[in-house]
Amino acid sequence: MHIPFLTFAFAAGVALNPFLASCAENSKHHPLPSSFGVLLFPAFEALDVFGPLDALNLFSAQRQLKLSLIAPTLDPVSTSPRSAAMNPFNSTFSESILPTHTFDTAPPLDVLLIPGGIGTRSPDPFFDEHLAFIREQFPKVRYLITVCTGAFIAARSGVLDGRNATTNKHAWADAPVYGPKVKWIAHARWVVDGKVWSSAGVSAGIDAVLGWIAEVYGVDIAEGLTLDMEYERHADPSWDPFAEHYNITDHLPSL
Ligand SMILES: *[C@@H]1O[C@H](CO)[C@@H](O)[C@H](O)[C@H]1NC(C)=O
Ligand SMILES: *[C@@H]1O[C@H](CO)[C@@H](O)[C@H](O)[C@H]1NC(C)=O
Ligand SMILES: *[C@@H]1O[C@H](CO)[C@@H](O)[C@H](O)[C@H]1NC(C)=O
């Protein structure tokens, strides 16, 4: 494990030493990101949040990471559907997260993660504050990671305009409704366009965040976390049997 040495070396300001630079994975990502925020809203998809976060939870034992769970207020945020129409069997089956920060108190973030879920289909006025927060944060964060239909919220804020992105393949028909100016790539486990990493549906967020960790912190780190999770990682962003399953094609904006 050479990371503590490298961390020390960069902290000591010798990052430009050619020997160290050649040892470091992708020095363009330095200083390495440490401050993560997750945008929360009612009826988020649990795995969209906890899949990526569990990889990062494990990673936080190896280096200092900071997590902010961000919502309009500090009230618990639940996976529970927001309307009776979305809960036809009247189930009482949900989990809640306690936010750590509001939009007003969120600290500076290196990474903003936006999960998906049925709550992303809520009508526009409901998301006004979330969309404003994304617009305000987007120029400042170094990475925006969307999971599943989290890309719909990002698209609604406008920050994906003109960019390549992907989302949940079962929800594919709705992508151009929420993001008419987004180049929606059908066949992708995840898509990278500049600072934006967008993943396909639900479990794809785990692969996308492990792929992001591999790119930013190093493949050895990502492989170690994958082993710790006893997970079979899809490291190829073009691995996507679900695009075939749903027989979908790219949605490209008409210019
Ligand atoms: C759910 O609740 C509604 C309203 O009380 C009721 O009309 C409906 O029959 C319930 N559905 C089930 C499956 O229990
Ligand atoms: C966007 O996707 C298209 C089609 O896959 C590709 O040719 C292009 O290079 C991508 N652009 C960026 C900025 O990634
Ligand atoms: C897949 O979609 C195309 C049009 O996008 C259509 O021509 C074709 O018949 C579809 N195939 C299947 C197996 O549904």
UniProtKB/TrEMBL annotation:
Residues 38-207 form the DJ-1/PfpI domain. Residues 1-16 form the signal peptide. It holds the Pfam family DJ-1_PfpI. Keywords: Signal. SUPFAM superfamilies: Class I glutamine amidotransferase-like (SSF52317). The keyword Cytoplasm does not apply. This is DJ-1/PfpI domain-containing protein. It comes from Pseudogymnoascus verrucosus.
